[in-house]
Amino acid sequence: MFELKSNLLFDGAMGTMLQSAGLPAGMPPEKMNLTAPEAVETVHAAYAAAGADILTANTFGANRRKLGEDPAPYIAAGVRIARGAAGKGRFAALDVGPLGALLEPFGEMSFEEAYAQFAEVMEAGEQAGADLVLIETMSDLLEVKAALLAAKERTSLPVFVTMTFGEDGKTFLGVDPAAAAVTLTSLGADVIGLNCSMGPEGLRPVLKTILESTYLPVMIQPNAGLPRLEDGETVYDVTPEAFAKWGRKFLADGAAILGGCCGTSPEHIRALRQVLDESAPPVRRYPDGLCRLCGWQGVAALTAASVAVVGERLNPTGRPRMKEALYARDWDAAAEAAIAQQAEGADFLVVNAGLPDIDQKEALPHLVLAIQKVSPLPLVIDCSDPAAMESALRVCRGRPILNSVNGRSDSLAAMLPLAVKYGTGLIVLALDEQGISSEAEARRDTALRAAGAAEKAGVRREDILIDCLALAASVSQREALVAADAIRLVRAAGYKTLLGVSNVSYGLPGRDELNCAFLAACLAAGLNVPIVNTESSRIRDTLAAMKALTGADQGCEAYISRFQRIGGASQSMRPETMPLETLIVTGQRSGVPAAVEALLEKEAPMEIINSRIIPALDRVGELYEQGSLFLPQLMASAGAVKAAFDVVSARLPQGAGEKGAILLATVKDDVHDIGKNIVKMLLENYGYRVIDLGKDVPPEAIVKAALETKAALVGLSSLMTTTAQNIAVTVRALREAGAPCKIMVGGAVVTQSFADRIGADFYTKDAAQSARVAAEVFGR
């Protein structure tokens, strides 16, 4: 296990240093490992002379997707150069960046494809002599999971992982720093942290959140401020002296490893070296006893006194609509109850795809992906098939709960390794080879034996939830309350508890009433996590009342708020009863066709577009800009819009309702296209015809396409400061050619002032804004 004995210092930027050393525009920096190794070695030597402890190999983009060829020779050369420059007493890190593609369900790359590409990189890096792996600048929890698992499974090296966060404190996919920290900690990273995106001041709040959410050593590598273009040159405003002052603050906050990202130089690293030399050794940090669980946003931190609710309805048992959707492999429809349960107050969502004649190994991961497209809540993955369970755990963003293991030896052998490998929370059932006891003490003893085995295998006690098993009162009234008695005993033994409450009423009428009475009894006994039907207002009322009585609801604030509301009955969240506008805003595509068909019986197609679909789109944009919706939900809403347009368009005369063509391109010498691809998917779902010219597109090719297609809107993007000027060149070429189009520009280094200066018509800071620009250009 990796142990940090002293504060460490990484080096600074590589790309900008190589650009100043003559890196040709448009050429991947990693190719210089073979074409100009002396230039790369000079950069490493400068950072070594500045006092860096760890030199980062020039391998950030050395993967098969970005290079278009076998990356191994570039990785071997890059690591060899870094290792040589490091000499004795320093370390060489294999640098691993994003693949530059969106993973499912937002893009076309599968998890296993991403894993395979990362595995290829990891193996080549270790073979070349890297001392550790640095996975950096990640935005997607699933992509970083693929990289981290590849590093852990294919190498024996320590793994450092950093993610990049925007001005809103989240990644562009909506991941917050707490969820990132909990996920990476649970998956076995040795060091975690953050890098890039902003300067030191902007990243400090993110750093503090990460420190609060992990016991691992934390690293931070900010940019030297935000880049800006000045007279055609890229300028970063944070000086080495100012950078060092922030480094001192980061150490005081609790960071243990410092370094620099874009715009930093050997002078910045030399200034940090002095700060580190004057600092005390890092203080080792330990787990705090909280069970932290998460999806892709938000963290549920369970204590012994916590009461958290699991929604039970993502389970086909007794739910014909979900069963039909699973058989039809309509994963979005199968996942539709996720949004409703979140709105009803669920803290977690059970996920179950168990049907007698369905392949759970295929269905369960698809269902997990579909749910996480629309909901950020942590998942409770319910499956007894180890192969299917692992396939779901691999694609799950965040830290889920594994449901479940029991006292039988075969269950312990199959499921405990998965809980440890994927760092999940764990549900332990109070049953073994003898079945379920009718006595509370025996259930406790059975559960504690299984929990002890889990702890011995490496699962922390705080991450275990014991299910004392509710049995149907219709079968045995005497045993109905044994679960409550067992809960009290298990809590006294120092474990948290979970229970499927609705089981007690199986086979009886008036299920809601019985469930509420049983829930109250179990909560009074100390139940932490009830699995319930959150659609029931009585269940929600019972939970609110019990939280008020037990003190979980401090000051009864939530209780008062709930029962002071006017118009007591809540709106149904079933898709079949929702208006079209709500389906679009919540991203529930499966219910859209029926809603549109119903409207077409009384409204004209264009009326539906103008009075229903477009206002819903406006609301989605508002929520996105307010930070209430994030990119995954934005894409889900776009999918719902496409489903609506597909139905409406079939009722329109040919050509009516067409929105027009939009031309998109990443400009010459820039090979980064993930942002452009997100814009493309969004605009296509909104009904526009998008002509994608790709990446590294010369100005003359863009002009030719604009004239031939007569596209009314052209979108240009650039990620790198060195290629942003090619946006200006392309805009000028379009104007000189008389192309009949409006031009929108965007990208990481593009600003409103830059757009104004080069004569672009619009600056779009994100995909949602590009849709608004399109609506303006095409007059709806």
Written overview of the protein:
It is a single chain. The chain has 780 residues and is of the alpha/beta class. 46% of the residues lie in helices and 13% in strands. It contains 31 helices and 25 strands. The strands form 5 sheets. It has an 8-stranded parallel β-sheet. α15 links the parallel β14 (348-351) and β15. α3 (37-50) runs parallel beside α5. The longest helix is centred in the C-terminal third of the chain and has 22 residues, at 605-626.
Strand line-up of the largest beta sheet: 1-10-7-6-5-4-3-2
Radius of gyration: 28 Å
Shape call: globular
How much helical structure, as a percent, in the residues? 40-55%
- Oligomeric state of the chains? single chain
The proportion of strand residues reads 5-15%
Low-confidence stretches: 566-571
Largest sheet: 8 strands, parallel
How does the helix and strand content classify structurally? alpha/beta
Average pLDDT taken over every residue? 92
Report how far apart the termini are.
Answer: 58 Å
Count of discrete alpha- or pi-helical segments spanning 4 or more residues: 31
E-strand count: 25
Question: What features would you highlight for this structure?
Answer:
780 residues; alpha/beta; eight-stranded parallel sheet; eight-stranded parallel barrel; 31 helices; 25 strands; globular
Q: How is the topology of this model organized?
A:
Elements: E1 8-9, H1 15-20, H2 32-35, H3 37-50, E2 54-56, H4 64-67, H5 72-86, E3 91-96, H6 111-128, E4 132-138, H7 141-154, E5 159-163, H8 177-186, E6 191-195, H9 200-212, E7 218-221, E8 228-230, E9 233-235, H10 240-253, E10 257-258, H11 266-277, E11 291-294, E12 299-302, E13 310-311, H12 320-327, H13 331-334, H14 337-343, E14 348-351, H15 360-374, E15 379-382, H16 386-395, E16 401-405, H17 409-421, E17 425-429, H18 440-457, E18 464-467, H19 482-492, E19 496-500, H20 511-525, E20 529-532, H21 537-550, H22 557-564, H23 580-586, H24 592-600, H25 605-626, H26 631-649, E21 661-666, H27 674-685, E22 689-692, H28 699-709, E23 713-717, H29 725-736, E24 742-746, H30 752-758, E25 762-763, H31 767-777
Parallel strand pairs: 1-10, 2-3, 3-4, 4-5, 5-6, 6-7, 7-10, 13-14, 13-20, 14-15, 15-16, 16-17, 17-18, 18-19, 19-20, 21-22, 21-23, 23-24, 24-25
Antiparallel strand pairs: 8-9, 11-12
Helix pairs in contact: 3-5, 3-11, 5-6, 6-7, 8-9, 9-10, 10-11, 15-16, 17-18, 18-19, 19-20, 20-21, 21-22, 23-25, 23-26, 24-26, 25-26, 26-27, 27-31, 28-29
